[in-house]
């Protein structure tokens, strides 16, 4: 894990008005509200492995993933281990709990691929929530989705066997992150282990089992899901 000391604002070619990758929340804003948001944001670039914000630091901003993929995880005190809460695609808002109540970030966000983040002041998000009901409704939907996803993730960790956990992770990456059965596996074996509650050795072993049984194919960094129905069956039976 590294924290970048050289993160600088990019030349802001696209304004919020012109951005084609707005979240469902920002699609509810008027032109005037988008201009206000644009005037209180900064666009930052992160390389793979760089920390976007760190658990325990003061939470003054909401972060929007404009491009790239982000890992969010909790650092477990005195254990030297991390628990990956989720892998997030472009179009996702991170840090919403900090708008009301939470004064510090409850988890760390780290870039997995080259990632562009729009950082927006909490006060602007709060103003939009309080003055635009449709925006507020979409924020609630977003937070509910994140909560339900987290509950399901922990249930899988508690009740599924190793094969089921890793099958879940590969299916999630395919359907929710890359939108394809063929994708570049940017997560390391350690990342997959932290996401699924498995050791690196167990991840390697289960991946080999999946390959041997022709569920997946791995060539370099490219992973192809060959038999999605059977992989989903493994996920369901745990």
Please tell me about this protein's structure.
With 238 residues, the protein is of the alpha+beta class. It folds into 2 domains: 26-146, Jelly Rolls, CATH 2.60.120.10; 160-237, Winged helix-like DNA-binding domain superfamily/Winged helix DNA-binding domain (Arc Repressor Mutant, subunit A, Orthogonal Bundle). It has helices at residues 31-39, 122-131, 133-159, 162-177, 189-196, 200-212, 228-237; strands spanning 41-46, 51-53, 61-67, 70-76, 81-88, 93-94, 108-111, 115-121, 182-184, 216-219, 222-225. It has a 4-stranded antiparallel beta sheet with strand order 1-8-3-6. The chain has a 4-stranded antiparallel beta sheet with strand order 2-7-4-5. Strands 9-11-10 form a 3-stranded antiparallel beta sheet. Helix 4 packs across helix 7 (228-237) and helix 5 crosses helix 6. The protein starts with 30 loop residues before the first helix and ends with a helix. Residues 1-13 have low confidence and may be disordered.
